[in-house]
Amino acid sequence: MAGLLKQLYWDLKHRNGRFQYFQALLIDVPGKFGQSLRWKIYRGYFGKVGEKGVIHQDVRIRNIQNLFVGENVFLGESNVIQAAGGVELGDNVLLGPGVKIWSANHKFDDPERPISEQGYEFKKVIIGSNVWIGANAFVMPGAVIGEGCIISAGSVVGGKTIPPFKILAGNPARVIGSREGLKNVNETPHEETGDSH
To answer: Which of 7, 82, 110, 160 places its Cα 20 to 30 Å from the Cα of 182?
Structure first.
């Protein structure tokens, strides 16, 4: 019993350890109250954070001190973010349910040693502003996703750079379209009606 209490003491002594206990207590608090409570408590632990955001139920964050979050970020239900190597989310990023973002991976270069003994490789993930990542997508270490991109549900984005305003899908994720120029295409001329809107 003394050993368990000693482990608890060391967990609570460190900032990241304290966050893990808060997260365990708050992870399933429902409704708008739960979203607001998580945002209020978690924001003190982020590396950097905007004023407004939403954290849905069952969001799991590791190494929150290395997670840098912009304004009006939406963390969807059951997101998992491993920020050991650093993760940056720009303004107005939307993460659908089940999205996973990883910035660390096991090293495996030595076939003679167990992978669990070879340590980790850390690569920052950068997600630009106004990006929407669909449900159950997986963003791997080293990925840089440009502003305005859409990642389709279930996609796996490898550690590469995606130019702004692209639409990606698949495993591995490939560019299947572009949002560039859509604003001009979707605009229709308005007749002069005298309205001032």
So the answer is: 160
Domain presence at residue 187: no
Phi, psi of 121 (to 5 degrees): -115, 135
Give the pLDDT of residue 186. 47
Return the amino acid letter for 73.
V
Q: Contact at 8 Å (CB) between 151 and 132?
A: yes
Give the integer Cα–Cα distance in Å for 103 and 80.
11
User: Which residues are the active-site residues?
Assistant: 106
Tell me the three state secondary structure of residue 61. strand
Q: How far is Cα 189 from Cα 115, in angstroms, rounded to an integer? A: 61
Q: For residue 196, is it within any domain?
A: no
State the CATH number of the domain containing residue 153.
2.160.10.10
177 with 161: CB under 8 angstroms? no
The domain in which residue 163 lies consists of: 2-176
Closest C-alpha to 66, from 104, 21, 40:
104
Helix, strand or coil, per DSSP, at residue 18: helix
pLDDT tens, 113-165? 999 999 999 999 999 999 999 999 999 999 999 999 999 999 999 999 999 99
DSSP character at residue 159 = S
| Residue 190 included in any domain | no
* Structural domain total, the chain: 1
**What is the C-alpha to C-alpha distance for residues 121 and 104, in angstroms, rounded to an integer?**
6
